[in-house]
Here is the input.
Amino acid sequence: MTLPLESFWKEKLDTTYQRTDFLFSLLPREAMLERPIALRHPFLFYLGHLPAFAWNQIGRGVLGAGHLDETFDVLFERGIDPKDAPSARRATHSNWPSIAAVLAYRDEARRAVRARIGEVLGRADDPLCENARILHLVLEHELMHQETLLYMFAECRPGLVPRPASIGPPASGAGHAAERVRISGGDAVIGAAWDEIPFGWDNEFGRTTLPVDSFSLGSLPVRNIDWRAFLRAKGDPPSLRPRSWIPSGARLLVKTVFGPVPFEVAEGWPVQVTGEQARHYCAHHGGRLPTEAELRLAAHMAPDGSRWPFPWDDTAPAPEHANFGFARFFPLPTGMHPSGASAWGVEELIGNGWEWTSTPFSPLPGFAPCARTYPGYSADFFDGEHDVVFGASWATDPKLVRPSFRNWYRRTYPYAFTSFRVAWDD
Here is the structure.
């Protein structure tokens, strides 16, 4: 039976809250003030940020209801993305409220947001209420933060976040090595028109078509085992060592959200490196990082010129297609989802890691910050230092796996669940 729209949105939010609460429950209470990534606030900030963002967008922003708690509304309003640790220290705080106070604020903010869903849906004169856009915005913001929260888990000291019995162990194996696949040129479509999708972030709009020359592309991402061979060939320079690796005497470990695992377990997983490091690997192999347009073409266009919304076809993303949506809490060895291959035979264009591209994150033609409550969502990062990443990771919610969705990271950022593959000019 179809739920009334208000009940539907309450259920969607409640389901999202449940996953957020589960993730925070994995973290010991005494660790809430830790900052395992120096470029981020402590965990406690994100406990307050998610409800504050929801209230600031819906209650204050759209409905004009004023502050719920002025101190906390402002304190937890916005996160940080500094370039380096000194900048992060200047941007963060030293005195944080108690965990109990933040939890009480979280619960009150959630109640206040749920109570006003009907009012949002009843606004016919506001573009942010039309199609429940502001509810989509709040929901997707929390889904994205669930993934970024786990980046911090992976940087915690070993043993702090043990794997619960409800989550299976990581899959091991060498995976499959990439093969070189030639892709004919064509037109790549990036973004969407405003009336084409029920919701999108501002950087998705300004649907554009870009011509792409023929090129070749790795059929799969580069693995940890591939990177180890590359490092040895380059003389093991410290600048090329992945932050996701931990030397331990004669052994090598690889980080996960539940502590490090032996390299032998993770050897077939996509290697997690920065965009800058990935460029060195590609150059060493006579290639380069693909562009956003090239990956769009490889994912959505077939050799006969037809277009698909997903690499495999028009079937909605499902676990048999890719490793995404928290189906597992770890990457998988490459090549485990052949049914998710594109028409060209390129695999894992969705899932297992956000793929680095060589395309700087920038606006599409006609860009406008369409959410007046969040004008800096994309515009603050059009700085030439952030690059588009493509696809999804294992911790990306299915709601974000849509053809127009665009994500980005600072190209020097080593903590995100990323991957990459090599492209070659014809």
